[in-house]
Every structure is written in structure tokens, then in C-alpha cells.
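Sample intake sheet
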Amino acid sequence: MDRKLFKLSDTRSLEYLTNGPVLSSAVILHAGTSQDITGWQTWLDYFASQGIFALSFGRSGYAASSPMPGRTTIDVAKDIAELASALGISKFVNIGLSGGGQHAIATGLDPRSVGVVTVGSLAPFAEMGEDFYKGMQQADLDEYADALKDISLLVARFQKWQNGDVAETIVGAELSERDKLAAEKLSWKIALDSCEFTFMQGWDWVADDYSSYLKPWGFDPRDVKVPVVIWQAELDRNVPIQHGKWLADNLPNTKLEIRKGESHMGIFVNYEEEIMQSAIALLTSS
């Protein structure tokens, strides 16, 4: 895989991967927390098989992407706007997994956007209040508590993952039957292996990501008028179902796809083809 670097106007570097020659229309992939750009490899391959140009990129602080202390959600959309212009992309759909979801939503403000797809996306912390936490597993509650108190505590927590089971930390100790099905698929392994790669590259991403998760987004999601397809797992304990419902209720042009019996990782893997096809439909229908 040929990792590429793009120099942004503020001199930061943005790392990205593509699935082939650049075309004027694209699907752009926003990773979940700790997921490296290589964690999308099966998705990049699938889009290529469908004749769709796609790229994944690293948010600030990830691997070779320069850190951006104090980053907000809209900052990522600005980085994507610069990259798209440099590559000559005139039409795009952005897909965001988990912590990448809100960043994908932000790109919906770009005039070149024809749609957004989210999978287990967070809703705005500042607007949800205590509802933000309801139904979360303890590991995630602890992460947000650390981030709000002292980001170094959260970095130390993630560092412990290097010697443990990443899947257990993300999904939980007990896998459901649907999780077990997902765990047999290549996308599950590739995504989790990519998280381990991220841990070996440094920890700037922790402060940058959690800054964007816990601060106001820098825009009103109600201003995103393009179609947004919201994929939400019924049993998600990382980003519980009320987050998807909040997005569906507050974005003006949404389709909420709830999948019963699925978890945070389960929906990403078990419904990956349907999710990708929902993005292709948005990209090719306009």
C-alpha cells in the first residue's frame, strides 16, 4: 500500500491512501478512533471493484499526519476540502465510522458534497448533555472521564491496550453471535490490526481526537442539507443508539438505518457491503 503525504496550506502533512488512479468523483473514508488508514483496505478494494475511486486519510496526529492541538470537527472538513481541491475531486461522498462520523458530517457543508454516510457516529457532546453517556460501556465512560480531567490519563489508558486484546477493549469481553460472525471476516481483523499500528506511531491523535469529540463542532449540523444515511447498531455500547437518533432528528435530510442485534463493530463488518452501496448510491445519483 502506497501511503501518500499531502502538504496543507498551514504546512501540516496529511497522510492518505487511494484505491487507484484519482477520478473527479470520490468516496472519502473517515476512520474511527485509533483506526489507521490501512484499516479500510477491504473497503478500498470493494470500491475499486465497483469502479469507484476512494481514499482513506489520517486525521491530525495519526501516524504521518501532523498534530493539530485543539482541533475541532470542522477543522477536519477544511483539511479534506484542501486535499480534494489538490487532487481535482469535484464531487464526493464521505463515510465516517464512529469518531469519524461527525467529521464526515462536517464535509456535508462543502458544495462538492452530494451526501454523507455515518456508521455508529457520535452526536454533539455539547448538545446531548447526560444523554451522551447513557448506555455506554464502562471502558468508554472511563475514556471520556480521563479526557475531561487530563488528556495524559487517557494516553496512559490507551498505552495499556498495546499489551492487551484490542477487540475486547472495543467490543467487550463477551462477543454476541453477531460479533462472532463479524470476527470471522477479514475486515474485522484488518481494522483491529490497524489500531495496533496506530499505537506504535505515537499518541498525538489522542488529544486531537478527543478535543474534537468534546468541544463544539464549529458548525451547526442542522446546516448540513445533503442526504445523510445514518447506520446505527441497536446494541452499540460504544456509541449508543440515542446518538444515531439525535442525528436523525436534527439533521434535515436523513435516513436512519438501525440494525437489530448488532454492536459497534458488528454493524461495520456485517453490513459493510450495504453501507458501501448506500454511499455509491449517493455518489452516482446526482
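Comment: The chain has one domain: 4-284. The mean pLDDT is 95.
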